[in-house]
Amino acid sequence: MGRPAGPPSVTLKEAATMVGKSTRWVQLRVTEGYLQKTDRGRYVISDFVQGVVAYYEGLAEKSNQKAAATRSSDARTREIELRIAERERRLIPIEDASAVVADLAGLVLAELTGLPARITRDLDQRKEIEKATDDLVRRIKERASQRADALRSSGVDLDQG
């Protein structure tokens, strides 16, 4: 007389072989509640497959949660580092830096504009000096504009020409 018909099942060893794991691995999943044995110590194949899938889905979920926690922790760490850098005056708001640069640029422009008159009263010489200072101011404005655009877009390599 054969076994009573029931859902197809496998032994512990067969179950381990099906998933390429050890019998100990299968037993641990039973202890964790992912897999159930029948009263005869066998594993119903459909239940076994569902249990293995549930186990790996749980791992994936834990991994996603860990990754999210890591990202959150990294963001908090970065925020703290920025606050510390600001307190240590290694970091200042871009608006403050821009205001200082604008103030200095205005001073340089005013001084350069008045330079020809301070150097000579000779109108021909003054025109030549004005031409040279106007050229200088134009180049400075072009460079400042390029740097400002780069800084606004994503940053600038201050070592660049």
Topology, element by element:
Blueprint: E1 9-10, H1 12-19, H2 23-32, E2 43-44, H3 45-87, H4 94-119, H5 123-153
Antiparallel strand pairs: 1-2
Helix pairs in contact: 1-2, 4-5
Quick summary:
This protein has 161 residues and is mostly helical.
Task: Kindly describe this structure.
With 161 residues, the protein is mainly alpha-helical. It starts with 8 loop residues before the first strand and ends in an 8-residue tail after the last helix. The chain has two domains: 9-81; 92-153. A two-stranded antiparallel ribbon has the order 1-2. It is rod-shaped. The mean pLDDT is 87. Helices cover 73% and strands 2% of the residues.
Q: How many separate helices?
A: 5
Tell me how many strands there are: 2
Major sheet, described briefly?
2 strands, antiparallel
State the helicity in percent bands.
over 70%
Report the radius of gyration as a whole number of Å. 38 Å
What descriptive keywords fit this protein?
2 strands, mainly alpha, two-stranded antiparallel sheet, 161 residues, 5 helices
